[in-house]
């Protein structure tokens, strides 16, 4: 768990648990025109995903879900409660997610973003993500389908450190499964 002062409140970044699902789902409904289901979030908690939440004092205000696949990570969903946007919380969460990914051997992160989500596109560009392509009709929306723009970011990690971190992550994960 990462803890730091954020104005008069304490900002915590920690692993998401099943107890957090209701708060996360509420943020998702406020943020996404076609929100994930509670089952989708629950499935992420059961699998090998990096699931993080941000709390201010005891209030859940943001979340991030990523897959970790050897040297690549796929940023599946990141959102900040509308009342807490434009305060730097998203950047703190994204940076923490990237650092945790590096610790697992990841060198590249990929993501899709709605073509119409100009704020998110600006956020990713500001944080070093580069546009690399398009997925036609990737997202559902009210009037049908919408293209998804593909962005990527190369993280600064040597190949040797990446391999070492991957091996450590896999061994640790296997030991957790066996126990």
Order of helices and strands: EEHHEEEHEHEEH
Envelope shape: globular
Determine the oligomeric state from the structure. single chain
As a percent range, the share of strand residues is 35-45%
CATH superfamily of the domain at 2-103: Gcn5-related N-acetyltransferase (GNAT)
Give me the Rg, rounded: 16 Å
For the termini, the CA-CA separation is: 22 Å
CATH class of the domain at 2-103: Alpha Beta
Spatial order of the strands in the main sheet? 1-2-3-4-5-6-8-7
Residue windows where pLDDT falls under 50 for at least 5 positions: none
Q: In terms of structural class, how would the helical and strand content be classed?
A: alpha+beta
Approximately how much helix is present in the residues?
25-40%
Describe this protein's structure.
The structure is a single chain. With 179 residues, the protein is of the alpha+beta class. The chain has a domain at 2-103: Aminopeptidase (3-Layer(aba) Sandwich), CATH 3.40.630. Helix content is 35%, strand content 39%. The chain has five helices and eight strands. It has helices at 21-31, 38-46, 89-102, 118-126, 159-178; strands at residues 2-6, 9-15, 49-56, 59-69, 72-80, 108-114, 130-141, 144-154. It has an eight-stranded mixed β-sheet with strand order 1-2-3-4-5-6-8-7, with helices on both faces. Strand 4 (59-69) and strand 5 form a beta hairpin. The model has no long low-confidence stretch (mean pLDDT 92).
